[in-house]
Amino acid sequence: MTTHTLETPEVDLAYDVHGPLPPADRRPPLVMIGQPMDASGFGALRSHFPDRTVVTYDPRGLGRSTRKDGRVDHAPEVQAADVHTVVQELGTGRSRCSPAVAARSRRSPSWRRTPTT
């Protein structure tokens, strides 16, 4: 596993890459995201994908990801933009989003699918 921090003006996003980048089999990495949990909550699920490169990350303001914008809310649009930014940072040469496994609690806002370029 390698840990990375993606620094932006509003947040430092921490994410972990489990496996090689780019993946040896050329499949896009599997991105596991959760709200309101961080990367540490995906250990058991990640273990079910030993043949895949898996990326887990700490959403804005949770775990190791540090907000710089002074806000405490978790807007779905902002969270989706953060995921898109991390996927682009992976540099796998794909223009579309990697497959994702998402989890949320009943207290969390619903995720909305956002178009990617």
Task: Describe the protein's architecture and organization.
Mean pLDDT is 83; it is low at 107-117. The relative contact order is 0.25. The termini are far apart. A hairpin with a 3-residue loop joins strand 1 and strand 2 (11-18). This protein has helices spanning 43-46, 76-89, and strands at 2-7, 11-18, 30-35, 54-57, 66-67, 100-104. The chain has 117 residues and is of the alpha/beta class. The protein has a single domain (2-104), classed as 3-Layer(aba) Sandwich (Rossmann fold).
List the helices and strands and how they pair.
Blueprint: E1 2-7, E2 11-18, E3 30-35, H1 43-46, E4 54-57, E5 66-67, H2 76-89, E6 100-104
Parallel strand pairs: 3-4, 3-6
Antiparallel strand pairs: 1-2, 2-4, 2-5
Summarize the structure.
This protein has 117 residues and is an alpha/beta fold. It is built from 2 helices and 6 strands.
Number of helices: 2
CATH class: Alpha Beta
Terminal Cα span: 28 Å
| Secondary-structure element pattern, one letter each | EEEHEEHE
Which structural class is indicated by helix and strand composition? alpha/beta
Largest sheet: 6 strands, mixed
| Relative helix content | 10-25%
CATH superfamily: Alpha/Beta hydrolase fold, catalytic domain
Spans of at least 5 consecutive residues whose pLDDT stays below 50 are 107-117
What is the architecture at the second tier of CATH? 3-Layer(aba) Sandwich
Task: Compute the average pLDDT.
Answer: 83
Large-scale geometry:
globular
How many beta strands in the DSSP annotation? 6
Briefly note the CATH topology name.
Answer: Rossmann fold
Beta-strand proportion: 25-35%
